[in-house]
Amino acid sequence: MNARVLTGSKKEIAEQLAGLSGDVLEAIVFVEELPEPRATDHNLFAEMEPFTVRQGHTDDSRAAIYQQREGE
After folding, report:
1. Residue 8: left if φ>0, alpha if ψ -120 to 50, beta else—which one?
2. Domain coordinates of the chain in residue numbers?
3. 22 exposed, middle or buried (CB, 10 Å; 0-12, 13-18, 19+)?
4. Count of C-beta atoms within a 10 Å radius of residue 13
5. pTM score of the predicted model
6. pLDDT of residue 38
7. pLDDT tens per residue across span 5-57
8. Dihedral through CA 44, CA 46, CA 47, CA 50, nearest 10?
9. Is-contact 4 20, C-beta < 8 A?
10. Quick one: 6 exposed, middle or buried, by C-beta within 10 A (0-12, 13-18, 19+)?
11. Taking the CA of residue 20 as centre, how many other CA atoms within 13 Å lie in the half-sphere pointing to its CB?
């Protein structure tokens, strides 16, 4: 039995693993944890609240966005 270290993205590791000859009996995987959101991250939206525009229904379809309006 030979030990191999495969590095790269998930896709690259999967491709390397699929290319190995023989049976794979075990795998040790190191998953990098995403950082915990900081308390200030979600407060950004609260800070921007005074600058937020409140608008009723807005037609944001592709046709409406690219349609030339009067005066443009």
Report:
1. left
2. 1-30
3. exposed
4. 14
5. 0.43
6. 66
7. 999 999 999 999 999 998 888 888 888 888 776 665 667 777 788 888 887 88
8. 140
9. yes
10. middle
11. 16
- Residue 38's identity, in one-letter code, is R
- Distance from C-alpha of 6 to C-alpha of 14, rounded to nearest angstrom: 9
Gap between the Cα atoms of 18 and 6, Å rounded: 11
Q: Report the pLDDT value the prediction gives residue 4, as an integer from 0 to 100.
A: 87
Tokens (6 digits) for 18: 């699929």
4 token code pair: 């191999």
Helices (H), the chain: 10-18, 39-48, 62-66
Of 6, 46, 5, 1, the residue nearest 25 (C-alpha): 1
